[in-house]
Amino acid sequence: MEGAFLFTGVGLVVLAIALLFFFISRYRRCPSDKILVIYGKTGGGSAKCLAGGAAFVWPVIQDYQYLDLSPISIDVDLQNALSKQNIRVNVPSRFTVAVSNEPGVMCNAAERLLGKSTNEIRDIAKDIIFGQLRLVVAMMDIEEINADRDKFLANVSSNVGNELRKIGLTLINVNITDIEDESGYIEALGKEAAAHAINEAKKSVAEKNRDGAIGEALAMKDQRIKTAEANSIAVDGENKAKITIAKSDAARKEKEAEAMKISVSAEKVQQAKALQEAYLAEKEAELARAEKEKASKEADIIVQSEIAKRKVEIEAEAEAEKRRREAKGEADAIILRKQAQAKGLYEVLQKQAQGFDQVIKAANGETRDAVLLLIADKLPELVKIQVEAIKNIKFDKVVVWENGGNKENGGNAAGFLSNMYKAVPPMTELFNMAGLELPSYLGEKIKEEKKEEKDKVKKKS
Known about the structure:
Elements: H1 2-25, E1 27-29, E2 34-40, E3 47-50, E4 54-56, E5 62-68, E6 72-82, E7 88-99, H2 103-113, H3 118-138, H4 142-147, H5 149-165, E8 169-176, E9 180-181, H6 185-362, H7 367-391, H8 412-422, H9 427-433, H10 440-460
Antiparallel strand pairs: 1-4, 2-3, 2-5, 6-7, 7-8, 7-9
């Protein structure tokens, strides 16, 4: 039962995910250069049109298509169109149309252009443009068509645009390249207008030339009169100016002499003041220079002193650093040497412990027997040490004072040597100080010797 419930739950989850992806796939976004047309059961009208944005397209009951908003260029070469004056004209032109994105017109495009190709839309629009262009030409005179192009274009745009809106198109641009007629009426109108313009231009030129000649003569007359008047006035002015100049020169020379006098005296005064100021400035400059040299010398002394002081400090710091490094190096060397000695001693003791362990194993685990084995191994060396104690004794001069006693030992000299040898610690005492005992056969013999010595002492006493 639990497995069935689990399988059912997994199935429901998978179904929900599949439905979610299906609904997401039916959500359609409309590009900016297209119109989204949703048709089917839309709830109102034959289709639902969106210019931009997005909408959900219900499966089964709805479907969708796109209408392209790209401009369509149409060449319209209208031939033999009858004008209002019954004159046939040729009107070659180019129209640019596109599917309209206005709310009301989009539905017309969806109803009449959905599913059609660009060429099919171009053919439909071209037929409408031909008919409306002929109608506009028939309503206007040749003069209006030729002279008032703005009115002609406005009539074309109005008539053609209204008809195109009925199928969902909008007129973007109209370009009339040229207008011709078979009878040459338009050409004659052009020539008449050109001739009229040329004649008007020639007349205007002649009138301007005439006016120019008259104006030139009057200008010459006025020039001569004005010139004579100006010359007389100029001569009178020159004479008056000469008198004024003479008076002015006299006054000027008088003023110049007075000014020269004042200028020379002022110059002398100024030179004296300048010389005095120069002396004062030079004096101040010399004082400032002396102060500067004094300050410079003091600064040099202070700087040298500071340099020497800093040099001593740096040398002291360097020496201290050197000593610290040497002390650190010596300490490190001592530590390394002690560590090496400790390691060597540790190795020696470890090897001795291993050897002693082997000796104990050889003695069947008896530590006392093991110690005896070690001592027996060192016994020749101990005896050698005792012998060496008196071997190298040198006597420069020996004086023996004796009273003839102790004959048994061969005289007092021999007894002296014997007693001196006995002064060496006996082997038994060495063993006793070490906390050990000699083997029984050695110990009994030594006891007998001691007993004999005691008996001899008693007999002497």
